[in-house]
Amino acid sequence: xxxxxxxxxxxxxxxxxxxxxxxxxxxxxxxxxxxxxxxxxxxxxxxxxxxxxxxxxxxxxxxxxxxxxxxxxxxxxxxxxxxxxxxxxxxxxxxxxxxxxxxxxxxxxxxxxxxxxxxxxxxxxxxxxxxxxxxxxxxxxxxxxxxxxxxxxxxxxxxxxxxxxxxxxxxxxxxxxxxxxxxxxxxxx
Length: 189
What we know:
Shape: globular
Structural class: alpha/beta
Distance between the termini: 19 Å
């Protein structure tokens, strides 16, 4: 059976991974599998920026793609960047097979605020849905409450939902039907 695969880099807490598995299954309807953790992606570390290149991590994830993997989502606690931005919460190939989400800036502690685990887990799911959505052809949505809305600041992540808006849900269903004719989105809850 083909699966959407979660690929942790380093030690990602079970309290993060399990809600992601459940939430992604509920949104996308695909079987969710987790593979054993990869080492921290030191190959992607940029010593000048003191951050990790999400482009290099995506390239590495694409090499791990197999026929039974529908999409692969890397999860890392490393702070990510792309050359044109100072940071990204995540990065995905539009209509591609791989995406990555960084947990670093989703934690309240990054902003020198008290820990809030419920808020952190909600942010994690929002960004995971957003990046996996891109792999299924979804672009940024103008509905600021949709999980596919652009989030280049933590306040924008907090303002959106973990769910796709009705327009993005319809586009997702159509794109999935074209890519995987035998997959029924009706399996979602």
